[in-house]
């Protein structure tokens, strides 16, 4: 996940510098570093001198789908994230580190956004103490929302999370059933499209795979708007997208990476040889074939991403510098 870190003092800059240095040693992508200080106080390279408000910076992190790291007092972060804290299942992860790097504290989206896990990694890099406050974590219990995120499942009714978590915290066993193995009397969690059994929480396998071809340098906002409009017109919820698929030479295309990050959708990339092996009828383009070695990217990528039994729901739709197609998985 992309990380953005902001500080407000020289000590804070030292913390971010240490963090990024240690991350680099371990092959971890460093955080994009920002400093909110008067430019005449410090002009070191490597930091973006941010002049906007902390709330605007938080909104920038939200727009990029990044983990927002505040090297500051907790209060600064809490006030800054007011406008980006909207939905516990969609909020960006927010983490606070004090100026002396003693503590690393996840304050938002500990489970769904992965803030708790990121905080543990940051604490290890800094030799700091992670301060985790979510009940299931401090009690060493099963977490239903973490289970859903890690298995790329859609939470159908979020009110069940609290019920299942409460049971786990009480030390009671939590039962999980899958659609092919329905329980006689119901279960705490059922993983299925639909069920007539009793349950506390229903987790649905995500149905759709989005395939995309993209022109180099496509504007991020324009790509986002095109994809969201296409999905809305076809009554497909973003939360029901299993993966965004494309050709491997587009794996670093920012428009696709940004959509993947913002909506927490895995970006799957296939090389031209694999795409050419996809079975089905696809709208061919000689121009695309000449450029990338395969006559269609979006449909073929969606087909491979959907796997065996996948079904084309929406053939290639052309936008300005972007094409998309949608397949349904056999789940």
Give a brief description.
The protein has helices at residues 10-25, 54-64, 74-80, 115-126, 135-138, 144-150, 159-169, 220-233, 254-263, 272-276, 286-292, 298-306, and strands spanning 3-7, 32-35, 48-49, 67-71, 94-97, 103-108, 129-130, 153-155, 176-178, 187-191, 199-205, 208-214, 241-247, 267-270, 311-319, 322-328. With 331 residues, it is α/β, with parallel strands linked by helices. It has 3 domains: 3-133, Rossmann fold (3-Layer(aba) Sandwich); 144-205, Udp-n-acetylmuramoylalanyl-d-glutamate--2,6- Diaminopimelate Ligase, Chain: A, domain 1, CATH 3.40.1390; 208-328, Nucleotidyltransferase, domain 5 (2-Layer Sandwich).
Description:
The protein is of the alpha/beta class. The chain has three domains: 131 residues, Rossmann fold; 62 residues, Udp-n-acetylmuramoylalanyl-d-glutamate--2,6- Diaminopimelate Ligase, Chain: A, domain 1; 121 residues, Nucleotidyltransferase, domain 5 (2-Layer Sandwich). 34% of the residues lie in helices and 24% in strands. The protein contains twelve helices and 16 strands. The strands form three sheets. The chain has a seven-stranded mixed beta sheet, sandwiched between helices. α2 packs across α3 and α8 crosses α9. The longest helix is centred in the N-terminal third of the chain and has 16 residues. The radius of gyration is 22 Å and the shape is globular. The mean pLDDT is 93.
